[in-house]
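SAMPLE LOG
Freezer: B-3
Tube label: C17
Construct: single chain, 285 aa
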Amino acid sequence: MLDDSTQLHFPDSGRVELPFEFNPAILRCAAVGPGGHPLMVLLDTGTDPSAIDLELARQLGLRLGDFGLGQSAISNTVPFTETVIPWLRLGDLTLRNLFALALNLRASPFQVDLVLGYNVLRHMVLHIDYTRRQLQLSHTDLSRPASHPDAIVFDLCFYDHFPALSQMVKCDSLLLPLVTIDTGSNGSLTLSPDLADSLGLHSQADAVTTEQGDGFASRSYDVVCRPVDVVQLGPLTLRDVLVDTPGPGMGNLQQAGRANIGNRLLAQFSSVTVDYARKQCTIRL
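STRUCTURE (predicted):
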């Protein structure tokens, strides 16, 4: 196994701002890697650790370790190996010795060369301005900005290193015990099969549709969808939210009690800030 010695080097200001693409409702931004290669990077609070496309890692001549099988949202058999990327630059932020899993990202329906996950994001404050399509990545030592009257602060817990809300979200009348915040998902609210059954959400139910879901490291899979009248997020009430659940299969979304908030729900707010060090999520209306 390779050691994770990932380092982040911020500019003197302690923060960088980057534009992001939001198609298809995921956070992707441009970066530069070894050899000056332009790269498309996905920022994903639902991934640990980071990842790089296997073929790209080979093209860059990166050292690769032994292969194993890992887990994704819908699969328990994702082949991967480990590697270290010497450097990566996002604007004025430089990452050095970036530890990542090398796996096949080419099957994704959108371009993604690298995925930045928990082993990078935990060293920063991630601010997503959905209105302006801007990311702000800040050093954790910077003081918190002044509170805004339209902002609500939620305490975070962590599920497998993924930021999560505990006992704060209701879907219709169903209290969801733990809901992860997943910027790598372009869904609204995803429920594990047991929670979906509690709401009567399954393939034989009335008023449901079946769509194709795509994971950046997994095959396409069936997703059963239906809008719900009300989702209560702390003091906030959201109406007509599309809820989905994966069909039978494997992966961590099959685990009992799993629920996941994606970008389609988060983008209803003007901005969302995930502060790993302070264990807080700030939502601005």
